[in-house]
Amino acid sequence: MKNHWDSFNKLDKFYDVDSLRLIRKFIIENAISVFEGACGNGYLIYSLRKDGYKGKYLGSDFSDGMLKNSKENNPDEDFVEIDLTQKINLSDNSFDVTVVDDGIYYILDYQPVIEELKRITKKYIILTYESDFYDGKDDFVIPGGTSYKYNKDKFYNFVDNIGLKIIKHSLMNEVDTNNLKTYQKVIVILEKIWP
Ligand SMILES: C[S@@+](CC[C@H](N)C(=O)[O-])C[C@H]1O[C@@H](n2cnc3c(N)ncnc32)[C@H](O)[C@@H]1O
What we know:
The chain is α/β, with parallel strands linked by helices and 195 residues long. The chain is 29% helix and 31% strand. The chain has a single domain (2-192), classed as 3-Layer(aba) Sandwich (Rossmann fold), CATH 3.40.50.150. The chain has six helices and nine strands, in the order ααβαβαββαβββαββ. A hairpin with a 4-residue loop joins β8 and β9 (181-192).
């Protein structure tokens, strides 16, 4: 799985979409420090800086190829190798906001991942997901792929039980201007209510 991402071209995602604009606006209004998991080619911080974000940033991904691209695209930013399924080597409450954009749904066992993200986050966790959560009985693998859909109620109950409040859950229509295709994206913003 990790090798799958290592060879991705750095131009793979360098287009803007509404969910990213929303994420950037939220960060600029609410954060002076951001941790990003599964940062891919580093477009979020590239576009955040263009929008005037001056705060701290740490990007991470588990793919060497992606990290190399991120660094080339953002030579002044810090990036580290982190596999989100493992314990993260950062202190509690290290960053105001944690973002995982189009990354969480490659992991079926998302609960320990979100607990770990919550531990290192002071205020908000932002997750995005291509297409809406599955409303059926079980989490399942999207046919033919390596990504997963989550059971929406189970996801909501889980985050509620660990002290995260869903303050936004929107389904957005996006246009990939590189490939001229449209798709739907879910953006979820979780607020840390208790440690
Ligand atoms: C679809 S790309 C999204 C990249 C970027 N966030 C964006 O929106 O352009 C998915 C990314 O998730 C990363 N990824 C997948 N599983 C991961 C894991 N367990 N830990 C860290 N990164 C992971 C891949 O290496 C890849 O960079």
